[in-house]
């Protein structure tokens, strides 16, 4: 019985991978989505361009080189957390979630599909950010260790944030309300050491920042891309690599446990008639 259950779950996961790839290709055909993937990297590249020639206070190290890794970590978390949240209301209104609920282990496949989709699109945005960013942020290291660590951080970051984004997005009734989640994410960035060293903030704010993935993704990216001597700006003057993997791993477990439960409860009250009513309401609004 256990083996059969595990086989069914693996089959659902594989179906989710295929679904995620199909959704990625569909998203890349949407002009609005493609514009969004390009927009943020361009904005960050312009910010780095204005930082060119500026040094980190008290050092001769380029400010842009310090900020770029943090933006890489932030982009992973932002893409995984806020991206899925905006799709949940739409998937609920067009019946996608109802169909997933009716399929054995459908919620597992749904989550895997979202991880693949938003992982792929976030990877595109990261490439668009890093390539031009290298021209304005020198003194970064890019060796085999860097790329391996960045790959691990990317995979863990997507797995840690996408399920949480799905669970949070399910709490909103319409796609427009998910803007509140984006505002909350922006507030968390302030205390996550992305644009300002977390060690310079009050202790209680440091603890708040360390409770969420944003800080650890930024820390991991900095540990991969910055020279060893820059560790002095971090808490405890350490990259805390093991702690980073531990915290992100904990968020992965929480996300994949909580998200299916939340989604099943959300769709418990759904019906074909409710889906049709929601679709008619969206069409009446001119969406």
TrEMBL record:
Keywords: Antibiotic resistance, Membrane, Transmembrane, Transmembrane helix
Subcellular location: Membrane
Domain ABC transmembrane type-2, first and last residues per copy: 32-266
Record field: transmembrane: 34-51, 71-90, 111-135, 147-168, 180-198, 244-263
InterPro entries for this protein: ABC2_TM, ABC2_TM_bact-type, ABC_2_transport, Nod_factor_ABC_transporter
Entry membrane topology: Multi-pass membrane protein
Name by which UniProt lists this protein: ABC transporter permease
Source species: Myceligenerans pegani
């Amino acid at each position: 019985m256990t083996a059969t259950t595990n086989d069914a779950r693996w089959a659902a996961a594989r179906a989710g991978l295929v679904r995620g790839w199909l959704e990625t290709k569909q998203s890349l055909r949407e002009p609005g989505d493609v514009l969004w993937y390009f927009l943020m990297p361009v904005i960050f590249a312009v910010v780095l361009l204005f930082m060119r020639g500026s040094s980190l206070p008290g050092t001769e190290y380029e400010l842009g080189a310090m900020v770029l890794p943090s933006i890489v970590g932030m982009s992973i978390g932002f893409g995984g957390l806020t991206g899925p949240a905006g799709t949940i209301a739409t998937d609920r209104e067009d019946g996608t979630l109802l169909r997933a609920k009716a399929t054995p282990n459908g919620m597992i496949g749904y989550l895997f599909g979202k991880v693949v989709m938003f992982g792929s699109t976030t990877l595109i945005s990261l490439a668009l950010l890093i390539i031009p960013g290298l021209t304005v942020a020198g003194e970064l290291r890019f060796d085999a260790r860097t790329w391996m660590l960045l790959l691990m951080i990317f995979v863990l970051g997507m797995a840690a944030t996408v399920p949480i984004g799905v669970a949070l997005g399910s709490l909103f009734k319409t796609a427009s309300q998910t803007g509140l989640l984006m505002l909350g994410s922006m507030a968390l960035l302030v205390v996550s050491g992305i644009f300002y060293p977390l060690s310079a903030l009050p202790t209680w704010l440091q603890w708040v920042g360390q409770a969420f993935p944003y800080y650890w993704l930024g820390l991991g990216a900095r540990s991969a891309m910055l020279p060893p001597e820059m560790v002095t700006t971090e808490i405890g003057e350490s990259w805390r690599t093991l702690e980073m993997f531990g915290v992100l791993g904990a968020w992965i477990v929480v996300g994949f446990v909580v998200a299916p439960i939340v989604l099943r409860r959300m769709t418990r009250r759904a019906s074909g008639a409710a889906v049709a009513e929601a679709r008619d309401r969206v069409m009446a609004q001119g969406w």
